[in-house]
């Protein structure tokens, strides 16, 4: 069941709608502004409804306070070095908005757009047509993102087609805290990631090639571990991100749908199992959070992100493109899925 309500109005007069997907005692709210996940409410071990998603209570928050909280990211999630995108010998200069690099779609990415909507039974379809030349990307790109919440599983499916060869790397920037939004730090959440390697970066968080084994490092989450257990340890890569802000190469491989992660909160008993067919996930521990959210001020580490995607900067690093390329041929379908399945430990 999906209900619709007015969420507010943007500064320039655009109407923002809130769509609430109901799944028994669970529900998720999605905005047509940026395809944003605004809340995810699930029962804790005592049955109490708990919002596990960081967000803002109104449109003003999403327009002014930043952080990409819950946003649908495009055309290109994460970073492209110096905004340089070269396709068939032509270089497209993209807007650089993060330490001299292109981040999350540039000056006005998909997170700032009002998406068209369609409801088909219990599916919410948001669509957007990104014009040729928008943010200097080539090709008219048609995107449809489908949200469902069934049997405890919140699923996001991404579909896109372009009439010119272009670059696409879609993701969602949801910040979770399974102890509850506004409850304080998420460092006590326990994380497991099915990954043997991270992607090392330079000081601007741009990867140039190579993989680093997590064995014997603070990045090893192959066995359950509190997010904060090793976050303060001395480590060159950890220091560059001021904590975890790193891409993990997943074992499932590009196009193979599998469970790649699991998060639990000892405080609430809420479990989130994570699935995707994307080749990698950006794990961000909310190191830079400083936002006034729905019920509290979100300080550093108030939430964490698991952003499924292709490896950042793969358009400039063939070694990474081999694991899952973001260059999309004209007429070819881009199709990926990310899902979060919520359960409870007694």
What report would you give on this structure?
The chain is mostly beta strands. The chain has a single domain (2-344), classed as Distorted Sandwich (Beta-galactosidase, Chain A, domain 5), CATH 2.70.98. The chain has three helices and 29 strands. It has helices spanning 59-64, 236-240, 318-321, and strands at residues 2-9, 15-23, 26-31, 37-43, 49-51, 72-73, 79-80, 84-87, 90-93, 102-103, 116-120, 123-130, 141-150, 153-162, 166-167, 171-172, 190-193, 197-198, 212-213, 225-226, 245-249, 258-264, 270-276, 280-284, 291-292, 297-298, 305-309, 327-328, 334-344. The chain has a nine-stranded antiparallel sheet with strand order 11-12-13-14-29-23-22-17-20, with no helix packed on it. Strands 1-2-3-4-5 form a five-stranded antiparallel sheet, with no helix packed on it. The chain has a five-stranded antiparallel sheet with strand order 19-18-21-24-27, with no helix packed on it. It is globular and about 60 Å long.
Backbone structural class: mainly beta
Kindly report the spatial arrangement of strands forming the biggest sheet.
11-12-13-14-29-23-22-17-20
Biggest sheet features: 9 strands, antiparallel
CATH architecture: Distorted Sandwich
Radius of gyration: 19 Å
Percent of residues in helical segments?
under 10%
CATH class: Mainly Beta
Number of beta strands = 29
**What is the distance, rounded to the nearest whole angstrom, between the alpha carbons of the first and last residues?**
28 Å
CATH topology: Beta-galactosidase, Chain A, domain 5
How many helices does DSSP assign? Answer: 3
Overall number of domains: 1
Low-confidence stretches: none
